[in-house]
């Protein structure tokens, strides 16, 4: 028999306890909390819009108080680009309430009128329509009656473009009255509908519906909602079905939406959403989900025009929630690409292709489209829709 001293007995008992305890699950080990995943801060679209607006002002606005053709010394003047220049100034003013935008807008109206022969009237009906639309919006945002007077002056002249060649429609220009196209008709329908919403003059609504019905019957593919460009451009009565521009889709979406707001007739909203859905799903219009490159010159403005009217449709309360989400996601996807891959920063200059940076001179038309894109995203973010 082995006799254990008290100390040996205590040691044996301690060993037994330790041996047993090592077989129990360990539930009291102190561990470091898991590191939370890193999440990127949400994009500040208002700050991005500020950068793009500043680049437009500093690089393109001339001492003559109009937007020059490019930021590399070409001071060429294009009347309808100035109208979109006024519209993006109104975007900035609406977002910030800064009087700087109002001052520049007033300067632009003086400079554009002077460069256009000291008149707002023009050879091209579509150019006048853009000026009228921008002025009407400026009136609604500022209350300045001179803007409304200019819009009304232009509207009276625009209506003289209607004739029965090609079954109706407003001519593209005053010296080619037998050529009718989407750029001269869909914006006119938007203008007439907005004038009706403002003044409730039934004649304006009648004009809006007459122009729209001609547009839909002649220049919209009934199978898809694709909007064609024009008819009888070369005098052969043919439709330019191969001219597939984002511009044409945008203004038709805008016309349908404006007439829906004026009448609440569901067919107008259905037309607008159908064409919008076509754009989102068409590999030519939006390859890889990014609106296509339509080059510089007038084409530089085309995507911005579509973006403006698609965004308005996205904020229409009667658009289905899922459809609205699709539009907003599409706009955001384009905005992220344009800002991260298609812009040179600083100072926030855009390329005609929203998937690559500009390498040389940038034209003001192209820059305006980029500004429009960022401004609509800033507006959607302010509405808490992003």
From TrEMBL:
Listed GO MF terms: hydrolase activity
Keywords tagged on the record: Hydrolase
Highest taxon listed in the record's lineage: Bacteria
Coiled coil: none
Keyword set includes Hydrolase: yes
Keyword Hydrolase attached: yes
InterPro entries, A to Z: 6-hairpin_glycosidase_sf, Glyco_hydro_76, MUG_Protein, O_gly_hydro
Listed name of the protein: Glycosyl hydrolase
Protein species of origin: Hymenobacter guriensis
Lineage per the UniProt record: Bacteria, Pseudomonadati, Bacteroidota, Cytophagia, Cytophagales
